[in-house]
Amino acid sequence: MAGPDDVAVTGLGLVTPGGIGVEPSWAAVQAGRSAAAHDPNLAGNPVTISCRVPGFDPEALLGGRRAHRLDRFVQLALVAAKEAMTEAGLDTETWDGARVGVVIGSAGGGAETFEAQHRVLLQENPAWVSPLLLPMHLSNMAAGQVAMEFGARGPNMVVATACASGATAIGIARDLLARDRCDIVLAGGTEALLNPVTMAGFARMGALSKRDDPGTASRPFDTDRDGFVGAEGAAMLVLERLADAKASGRRIRGRVLGYGATADAHHITSPDPDGRGVRAAIEAALQEAGATAADVRHVNAHGTSTPLNDLVEAQVLARVLPHRPLVTSTKGVTGHMMGAAGAAEAVFSMLAMERGMVPPTANTTMLDPRIDIDVVLAATPVTPGLVLSNSFGFGGQNAVLAIAGA
Asked: What does the pLDDT look like over 320-340, one tens digit per residue?
């Protein structure tokens, strides 16, 4: 097993409701500009607000013929992967593809394609269902397409731990590198679940904000929070061993020092009110990083803007990190990208350390009086150090990444 500082990130790629690319996405969260808007595709649904990627043209970005054969969750992943690979500057013609892995998290896979083809089945007949239904719908297709794009012939897998999927994928990538199963891993998350049936399901279970004003709907840790805003997006990272990255002279954007994963084993949607699983995941990430709670300078919280989840997370942070590091949730801007959220927030965590600035928790104006943590309400300078990036999901999934700058 390699040491606790063994894994470096040499490429970052983002496609978020804040913009296409790392810099537009970072600028949006730093400015606290909410991406939420009324979504015409959700007309007639109980909730019609979402956060979509602005100006995303898959034909222009991927080529018309190819784009039409890919579900949106794959399109998003490919664009993010291309940015990450371009930044890393890796030569796919000369690398050993058998030592390159791909791990991508997604909660729902190609749900948009499945819903569209189900309508065809009901309104037409089975003969009209597309023969591309399964190659577009299956959850593993994002990882498969990324591997085909770059000739990555090593371990290739999809991770489905609900809204913790993107963070889980990065943790598994770290393990593949630490155990010498790969030399390079492309890891992250992707999600495109803004289809009517999925969003109606979230609305019916009471998970979504019902506010009339989209721009203030997602307000993590606020006393008036009432649910999350659904979002789409993708984030991809190029990870390799620190020694290899240094030897090659590649720019190091950050380091993944530790990973903790636990299950609440409590309820299908609600967190354990005692937060035992969350606390255990934080402690496991810190232990693997060779760090203590006092080393944590910043927490990128899961912070979905749902009443119970925000409260439990905040109470755990107050107990585990009594020195009150800076806490933010970028979901006030991006909404909840579900399976992509943990990967995108890992990128935001690295950028906060790289640039010495923690982005604000957008729309939060009155902190819940039961919450006793240092929630950042305006962009705030931070001394670079250790960051915890928290991701939790239905079924009691908990994933925590311990991240540092270069």
From this structure: 999 999 999 999 999 999 999
